[in-house]
Design goal:
heterodimer, A: alpha+beta, B: alpha+beta, 7 helices, cytoplasmic vesicle (chain B), AP-3 complex subunit mu-1 (chain B), Longin-like_dom_sf (chain B)
């Protein structure tokens, strides 16, 4: 396999011109640029297509590998989409994986075709294996096709209450993907986040906090109840999750706790602590103890305590995260513990060093004491990259104080001689900064720098000049010698900045060097035209100053220079020239200003402050991208200031606090009990509602393909589900379980325990009632998994739609449908009607009542159902044979038919002792439903999830007499087995039901409009039934 | 935090040889900003790890002659990305034996599968080598032959369980006929020695690398004779922090195979014994196009162990044209392009100290180099942990068999630099 990618690439490179021409017409429009190259791709692609269509997995795999190779190189492989997507359901895991890779890359570009693959994922979402469910969710949510948003939403919701924490973790990841695809889903996603935040699994914690940060970082209220749990779980969360959680908790803490940094008195003191930091801090500690003005919130303490061990993490990002947390949250006396760990990171890769050093640089400005003990760890090695060297230098400069400056200067001497001139220049600046900051060494530094003026390297000299200039400005008193020395340098130095600096110095202190200054002006006037702009400006400056102090000697020179400047190419210089001339040369036009020219030019100038470039970085949260860039990055979340008064800490109180260990222990227990669990869930399904998937012949190809498979599997499961049929006491069982599942929302671990109890309970029920079902628990894992997955979705639904449950029908239609006319039936007539009762033969069945009447004058014996011709998937529970039916008598029997949520006809033979008649039962779509009660709120929530493809609507005429709420309800109920949803609005009527077979919700909304029209909206996953129902309901209200 | 959007792998000549997108596709042209920054930098080491472009941020690492350039769209802790990229490179190394362009190109499908598993929507998913190896089997010659014949694949056919347990670093069902646990205590001396031979800075950094091949779910505890030596420690996630805090014992359920158990720093109070000394005389004559070079390396007394694997590398000043040297031991090379002198000394015998001596030829007319170059020294000492750290005992719980245990000590030079 290894050769493929490369081999392909080579062939791609050699393009035979004739091939290119042949293939060009088909491909040119899509990629005009890569003309030749691409056309050869096409040729190859034909070949790949064939391989993909081949029946051999090895050929397909080979093709997929080559395609992935193309994707990796950034070549366009999109035209293979149809051929690739066909293999999405491949049995071979590797082919499947590679198809997933392909889908994620191209689905966005080929949305229509991508939809073909959706059903595969939907099916996999119900797989019994948690890893398959998880990966299906992953891929489904990675396909950025807006039309599947509702499907994604549903999948996320289901997965978020999956039993497997791994699936829930993936659900948390999917939240972000869906959010970026459709931000309008925000509200509903927040609900899922809220739920997942309550999750106690360490697997989930990191991912859901990630989603929280992405979707609703401002909803700090969602964290309260989970704060302590997150703190306690933190150590066991995987390292990447730790980083995210720590960052989030840092922000949280800054909004919820009061500052541990200062007592009321010393506000503003915090930035003044420099060398005396340590003692200062101790002082504060004492103050604190005495005044008792501050006691740390125990939750604040909890966070600090639980993050501390993570400083020992091997992951640099985790260490940095804890470090910034301590920096931003801990009392200053405690923040010291992070320095050791940060210094440790300096042993790491250069990139890690770079970021860590930047952060240390910011910290070391404010709190020298933290890093002073580690000064030597910042010593530079000649092998360090320049960027690391300069950062280390920066930190050393920040840490310099009276005690260590001599050591540092010795170290700096080595650096100045470095072959890396950029670094040498930086060192000179550092020396300058030390000199200004520590007055004891100013002279020493200055002397050192003057020595450097004779350095061979121009950059070093130039930098020294600039720094000396700055230093002299701070204390110009007795530095005439240095200035003279520098004036001599002017002949040799060519670096503009340095020349300009020297000129400025001479100008500024021209009165101290009265003999040299005019000479310098003379020299530079000569070279004026060849100088850099920067230097020219300083020559003008020097001229002006000399003109004011020593006009006798320099008047003409200055005039000359000004004339040169007047005709200079640079307008800056022309401007300056004009300005200076007006100012210094008095004439009638110049106003009062020229009197003050001397004062203006030779004013006392404040000495420049030599500051660290990291001075202002501390307003960014440490460890962030924004801090590194020193500019606000997109999506940066500001760290808020401490609140004056802490918000109520009681919001974080939780009734039950159990540790994660317990949870995982329970989980592992339940894992062992897998078969029982499955069994349990199956029984739950049986009791809770009928559920199975539907079949519709009219749906799109892929859809029906999927359905067919499901049908076959549901057939398999029919065995077990029918045999476990509803016993009378299961009704009560159901209600208790519902309660517990409702309560399970409170505490997951409790949930698990209860479930375990239920398992045993339901087990005993069944083993007594039906041994076959419990024995089938090992044998038919297939059927179980099917029903298990269904159950997953169903429990989910029942949990989501908290109060939605099947209710008894309100209205029973009396309409009888004829099944067998007495003429054709040789005296036997048969009618059927839909009782709208939950069917006792099976949850997925519609119960049908058949009335058999003997219109002949002889008794008819042995009436039974003979050969059945059912469409695939459809099942039928026959009525018990009737031994004898007397003349003129009739008998009503009930049977159950699983129509698989379709309006297909169930054909079978009705047999008597002597005859057999072919009969049909065709259900109106309205009878394939079971009413559901739910609150208006739940209705809206569910409706919100069933939008887009899942919504059908029509505008209908409403006859005037039909516009009252009673009539509407009555008529709709007559047409379909719906449950009324209490509505707050007069004009809107809502009905809810679910399909008998699959239990999919069917939401019907009638919204009355002006001029006797109404909007009829149906929301359902079962789009086909939805549209049929819409068609059937349309005439219902318009008829008089 | 949207984390990693895309990843580009770029070789030294600036070819993008692999791209992977976890969200919508970002055009390769975004790398132009990277190339621009690369051009500005003097060398590869100086390319800034974080680059800001108008619409994206580029965070990159440089490993084994490959730039891993990730595209980020929003605020994210840069270390998070950097650490992750290194983890990717580590994984390649682990899978293919080397993290090179050829290895990646040869295994592009595995690389893609790995990247797919390691990140979901730009957020790390599975980064533990134990788990990844269950998901995607590393290539071996035998397997690739078998695969090409049978058409089977590298994708694990059984699904991994480790990801689901609360010990995510260990796979279930490990079985060995020989149960072994080896620990290598490796200490490195970081030091800066100044001209006069006195120590400016010295520190001992250590790691314990483990190779654990034990069946089942062994629970190990490793104790030291002198745990107080360890000043600052960082742990593999498997180690129970609380046990360390209270008892100074490393207690853990190990991952299967090779991994780094801890890294540590020896407290700075302890004086570091420097095992070698260097006598040097390097000088460049004023107004002459030559200089002298004379370096002798010797072992310091009282070590009792042999110093071996000694290599000295020197970055000579730019003005150096060539060097004519004689080595009394080992061999030397001088690369006139990079100006790097490398002297492979080998073992030091105290009776006859290795010496490298000769003439340095300078570019005529160029000014005499300002500074003498620093000497970087590498060495190894077997059977010795220079800090004196000693493993006391290793106990195993949870499994019945008796494992074979071994501890090896080695001391190496870390960043060991002699200024001249």
């Amino acid at each position: 396999m290894s050769g493929n990618g490369i081999g392909y690439g080579e062939q791609g490179g050699e393009v035979a011109p004739e091939l290119a021409q042949e293939a060009a017409p088909t491909t040119a429009p899509s990629v005009p640029a890569a003309f030749g190259l691409f056309s050869s791709d096409t040729k190859k692609n034909e070949d790949l297509k064939q391989m993909l269509e081949s029946s051999k997995d090895s050929a397909k795999l080979d093709a997929m590998k080559r395609i992935v190779g193309m994707i990796a190189k950034g070549k366009n492989a999109s035209e293979l989409f149809p051929a690739v997507v066909k293999n999405v359901a491949s049995k071979n895991i590797e082919i499947k994986k590679l198809v997933y890779v392909y889908l994620m890359r191209y689905a966005e570009e080929q949305q229509d075709l991508a939809l073909l693959s959706i059903s595969t994922f939907q099916r996999a979402l119900k797989d019994p294996n948690q890893l398959i469910r998880a990966s299906a969710l992953r891929v489904l949510s990675s396909i950025r096709v807006p039309i599947i948003v509702p499907i994604m939403m549903l999948a996320i919701k289901e997965a978020s209450s999956d039993l497997s924490p791994y699936v829930r973790k993936n659900a948390a990841h999917a939240i972000q993907k869906l959010y970026s695809l459709d931000p309008e889903q925000k509200e509903m996603l927040i609900e899922v986040i809220e739920k997942l935040l309550r999750d106690r699994s360490t697997l989930v914690a990191g991912s859901v906090v990630m989603a929280f940060e992405e979707v609703c970082p401002d909803r700090i209220d969602l964290i309260h109840k989970n704060y302590r749990k997150l703190c306690n779980l933190l150590v066991d969360v995987e390292e990447w999750g730790q980083v995210v959680i720590i960052h989030m908790l840092t922000r949280y803490a800054r909004t919820q706790f009061v500052s541990p940094w200062k007592t009321d008195e010393d506000v503003g003191d915090e930035y003044n602590e420099n060398n005396f930091y340590e003692s200062d801090e101790e002082q504060k500690e004492k103050d604190r103890k005495v005044k008792k003005t501050y006691t740390m919130d125990p939750d604040h303490r909890l966070l600090l305590r639980n993050t501390k061990p993570l400083l020992q993490s091997r992951n640099a990002a985790v260490v940095m995260a804890v470090a910034q947390l301590y920096w931003h949250l801990a009392p200053k006396s405690e923040a010291g513990i992070i320095s050791k760990s940060l210094v440790r990171l300096l042993r790491s890769n250069r990139e890690v060093q770079y970021i860590v050093l930047q952060n240390i640089a910011t910290m070391s400005i404010q709190r020298k004491g933290m890093f002073e003990p580690y000064l030597k760890s910042f010593y530079v090695r000649s092998t360090d990259p320049t960027m690391i060297k300069t950062l280390k230098l920066e930190i050393m400069t920040n840490l310099a104080n009276e005690a260590n400056i001599s050591t540092l200067l010795r170290e700096f001497q080595t650096y100045v001689k470095s072959q890396d001139k950029q670094f040498a220049a930086a060192t000179i600046q550092a020396i300058g900064r030390c000199a200004t900051n520590i007055s004891e060494v100013t002279d020493t530094c200055l002397n050192g720098l003057v020595c450097l003026l004779s350095n061979r390297d121009e950059i070093v000299v130039a930098e020294s000049v600039v720094v000396i200039k700055k230093l002299l400005q701070t204390q110009p008193a007795h530095h005439g010698e240095i200035i003279k020395h520098m004036a001599k340098l002017l002949d040799n130095i060519t670096v503009p900045v340095a020349r300009a600096s020297i000129l400025w110095l001479i100008g500024e202190y021209c009165e101290r060097v009265p003999k040299i200054a005019p000479d310098v002006l003379r020299k530079t006037a000569k070279s004026f035209t060849n100088e850099d702009d920067l230097v020219k400006l300083q020559i003008l400056n020097l001229g002006a100053k000399l003109y004011l102090t020593n006009s006798k000697q320099t008047k003409l020179l200055t005039q000359y220079v000004l004339n040169l400047g007047k005709y200079d190419q640079s307008y800056d210089i022309r401007d300056r020239t004009r300005f200076i001339r007006q100012l210094i040369v008095p004439n009638e036009k110049s106003g009062a200003l020229s009197k003050y020219a001397k004062k203006i030019f030779l004013a006392q100038k404040p000495a420049p402050l030599l500051e660290s470039p990291f001075k202002d970085r501390d307003h960014f949260q440490l460890g962030t991208l924004s801090h590194t860039l020193n500019s606000r990055a997109t999506g940066y979340l500001e760290l808020s200031d401490w609140p004056e008064v802490a918000p109520d800490p009681a919001v974080r109180n939780v009734e039950v606090a159990e540790s994660a260990k317990e949870w995982t222990a329970i989980l592992s227990k339940t894992k062992k009990e897998k078969p029982t669990e499955k069994f349990y869930s199956e029984s739950e399904e049986e009791e809770e509602d009928s559920a199975s998937t539907s079949a519709t012949e009219s749906e799109s190809g892929s859809e029906s393909e999927k359905e067919r498979k499901e049908e076959s599997s549901s057939n398999e499961s029919s065995e077990s589900s029918s045999s476990t049929g509803v016993s009378s006491d299961s009704e009560s069982e159901e209600s208790t379980e519902k309660k517990t599942s409702g309560a399970a929302e409170e505490s997951d671990s409790e949930d698990i325990k209860k479930k375990a109890k239920e398992i045993s309970k339901s087990r005993s029920t069944f083993s007594s009632s039906d041994t076959e079902s419990s024995s089938s628990e090992e044998s038919s894992s297939n059927s179980k998994s099917e029903s298990d997955s269904n159950n997953d979705s169903d429990t989910e639904k029942s949990r989501n739609a908290t109060s939605s449950k099947v209710t008894t029908q309100v209205f029973v239609p009396t309409k009888m449908h004829e099944m067998l006319h007495r003429m054709t039936g040789k005296g036997l007539s048969a009618h059927y009607q839909f009782s709208r009762q939950p069917c006792i033969f099976g949850d997925r069945m519609v119960s049908v009542q058949v009335t058999l009447t003997n219109t002949s004058d002889q008794k008819i014996e042995n009436i039974h159902i003979g050969e059945k011709k059912l469409p695939p998937g459809m099942r039928m529970h026959e009525f018990n044979p009737i031994e004898c039916l007397e003349p003129e008598r009739s008998v009503t029997v009930s049977m159950g038919i699983d129509f698989c949520d379709s309006t297909q006809t169930a054909s079978f033979q009705l047999c008597t002792k002597d005859d057999h008649f072919n009969v049909n039962i065709q259900p109106p779509v309205g009878e394939l439903l079971l009413p559901v009660t739910m609150s208006e709120k739940d209705f809206k929530k569910e409706q919100g999830m069933l939008t887009g493809m899942n919504e059908t609507s029509a505008t209908i005429d409403v006859a005037p007499q039909n516009s009252t709420s009673r009539v509407i309800t009555e008529r709709l109920m007559k047409a379909a087995n719906l449950g009324v949803v209490p509505s707050g609005q007069d004009k809107i009527h809502r009905f809810a039901a679910k399909t008998v077979h699959s239990g999919s919700l069917m939401l019907v909304t009638v919204e009355l409009k002006e001029s006797s029209t109404a909007q009829l909206i149906i929301n359902t996953e079962k789009t086909v039934i939805g549209s049929v129902l819409l068609r059937e309901l349309k005439p219902v209200l318009s008829q008089g | 935090m949207k984390m990693i959007h895309s990843l580009f792998l770029i070789n030294c000549s600036g070819d993008i040889f692999l791209e992977k997108h976890w969200k919508s596709v970002v055009s390769q042209s975004v790398c132009d900003y990277f190339f621009e920054a690369q051009e500005k930098a003097i060398d590869v080491e100086n390319v800034p790890p974080v680059i800001s472009t108008p619409h994206h941020y580029l965070i990159s690492i440089y490993r084994d002659k490959i730039f891993f350039v990730s595209v980020i769209q929003t605020e994210v802790p840069p270390l998070f990305v950097i650490e992750f990229l290194h983890r990717v490179a580590d994984t390649f190394q682990d899978y293919f034996g080397e993290c090179s362009e050829t290895a990646i190109k040869d295994n592009v499908v595995i690389v893609y599968e790995l990247l797919e598993e390691m990140l979901d929507n730009g957020f790390p998913l599975a980064t533990e080598s134990n788990i990844l190896k269950e998901l995607i089997k590393p290539p071996t010659i035998l397997r690739s032959v078998v695969n090409s014949i049978t058409g089977s694949s590298n994708v694990g056919d059984t699904l991994p369980t480790g990801q689901l347990s609360n010990i995510p670093w260990r796979r279930a069902g490990v079985k060995y006929t020989n149960n072994e646990a080896y620990f290598d205590v490796i200490e490195e001396i970081d030091a800066i020695i100044d001209k006069s031979g006195s120590t400016v800075f010295a520190e001992i950094q250590g790691v314990i690398d483990s190779c654990i091949k034990l069946s089942g779910m062994p629970d190990l505890s490793l104790s030291f004779m002198n745990p107080r030596l360890l000043d600052d420690v960082s742990f593999h996630p498997c180690i129970r922090f609380k046990r360390w805090e209270s008892e100074r014992v490393l207690s853990f359920i190990p991952p299967d195979g090779n991994f780094r158990l801890i890294s540590y720093r020896v407290s700075s109070q302890n004086l570091v014994a420097i095992p070698v000394y260097v006598k040097h005389l390097i000088s460049f004559k004023e107004n002459s196009s030559s200089g002298r070079f004379d370096v002798t390396i010797g072992p310091k007394q009282n070590m009792g162990k042999t110093v071996e694997g000694v290599v000295m590398t020197v970055h000579m000043p730019k003005a150096v044209l060539n060097m004519n040297l004689t080595a009394t031991q080992g061999s030397y090379t001088f690369d006139p392009v990079t100006k790097v002198l490398a002297w492979d000394v080998g073992k030091i015998t105290p009776q006859k100290l290795p010496n490298l001596k000769g003439i340095v030829n300078l570019q005529s007319g160029a000014p005499k180099p300002e500074e003498n170059p620093s000497l970087n020294i590498q060495f190894k000492i077997q059977q010795l942990a220079i800090s004196g750290l000693k493993v006391n005992r290793l106990d195993m719980y949870g499994e019945k068999y008796k494992p074979f245990k071994g501890v090896k000590y080695i001391t190496k030079a870390g960043k060991f630099q002699v200024r001249t």
